[in-house]
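Give me the fold.
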Amino acid sequence: MTGQPSLMGEREESFVDLWLFIIVATTIIAILINILALHYGTAAVAANLLYIPIVLAAYWYPRWGISYAIGVSALFIAIVAFVTGGTVAQVAASFVTCLVVIGVAAVVSSLAIHMRKNEVKYRGIFNHSEAGIGLVNNPDHKVNEVNRRFADTLGYEPAEIEARTFVDLWADAADRDRFFQRLASQGNVENLETRFVTKGGATRWMLLSAGMLPDDQFVCTIVDITARKQAEESLIIKDHAISSSLNAIAIMDLDFSITYVNHSLISMMGSRSEREFAGTNLWKCMASPQEIEKIRDTLSHKGSWLGEILLKKTDQTQFYVMLWINLVRNETGNPVCIMASFIDITDRKQMESVKRQALEQIEKNIEQFAILGDHIRNPLAVIVGLSSLAPGDVSDKIILQAREIDRIVTQLDMGWIESEKVREFIKRYYMVGIQDISDTGGAREGLVR
């Protein structure tokens, strides 16, 4: 039943008129029998019949039970006085009997009122609970009664659920068998996570608890935890993705104290386990403290920071990383933690250093080309000048050889120009030496040219 409860209870309300008829009929019968008993002198036994209508009236109409008992008692005393001619002993005995009847009516009415209040209270809990509640008959597993939440959780109407058996609702037979075995052996089952089948054929995760009742029934409660299970599964996937990521990842509280590191960061830092980082402040791992305040300020204003920093391994070895650090916010926009991702760029930095050295060597070679050409042409000019003092044939031969030397030097100059193009190509496409080498390179170019 899923209707609204009343003081008399749901089931009893449909029998109010019937019980009223029974109470009136039993009262009339009891009075008539007592009149006959008084006439034949056996009233002591017949008076006990008054308890039947009085108890029924006190139970079904507890607020009027005492008044009804007083009215019937008064009628009974009047009948006794009339039939016996007002004998004191008979009237006194009937009066005592009526006092007992009224007392019984008072006790029954009080208990009935208390029972009705408890029934209303527990019926309200049953009907308005956020958990789905059902009563199941244990031998045949027929669903006797469910509240609205139970039916709505599975997409049924209450009457549809009550037309099925509890066994039909399970999606996993192994869970169902384990549930009934535990219920039979222990008398209760608490917080069993299992799946139920909805009316549409879908499956939903439920948190199921149950307990046996004295009348060979058991009460069960279900709470839909499908969203929680999906969130847990999503968290497991994300946790696995983070823990197995090739990128080194750390999660910190808002004070930059490390609360989690993945395996890649443990390996990168040359550590053995996550426990070595528990509670450690990120700044203790940095080899360049001057970067700390810059990162703090940028993080507080922009929410993230990206750049190269120098870290220290567990053995104090320094190495370069590309650090991306950002604030993680909740759905209301408030920061809850800090996440940092590290990429080891030590090899890249070393490669850049090698490229830089190579470019510097090219610069030096270019300078040497220019200087060597000047050094060759200066003596060559002197030789050509002196050759004019020699006889004609000798002078011509010397000048011819000097021109050949000048041609070779010109080829060297062309090689120098090609080296200039190579240097510019490396600087442009390999991003090496643009800042520090170009500054000195400009002076060198001026010297060469």
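The CA atoms of residues 273 and 414 lie 60 Å apart.
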